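@channel sequence for tomorrow's demo:
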Amino acid sequence: MVIRKKQMYRDPEKGKIAGVCAGLADYFGWELWIVRIIALTALIFLPQVTFVAYVISWFVIDKKKPGIGTHESGGYREETRYERSQDGSAIEVKTRVWEAGKAPKYALSDIEKEFRELEVDVGQMEGYVTSSEYRVKQEINRL
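structure tokens (generated this afternoon):
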């Protein structure tokens, strides 16, 4: 297992204003809506401090470049399990409710769906290989 140093980036593509909350959510592995609720609550109870902290974060934290600092690009996030899907990509399975990723129940249903699709494909291949058409093509190729 390779452990990479995590860096925080703003993610304007996922963000509503400047992507600060989206960057925090990605950095800590939390759901984005939880970070937004925390920020909104802080803005209600400590408006000056929260506003100033957000603006400073907007200018201090670097904007995320494509393919940097996320689990999609191979970054490391603590206590996150990955399952491999059919196309080789990783299905992120969350271990805690507030983490980003799929709940194990939904990840399992996705994996079951992929296995059903694979089973159909294998059945079609078996049908073709055992057919007389396949044998005729093999005989023609041998000539």
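heads up for whoever presents: DSSP finds five helices and two strands in the chain.
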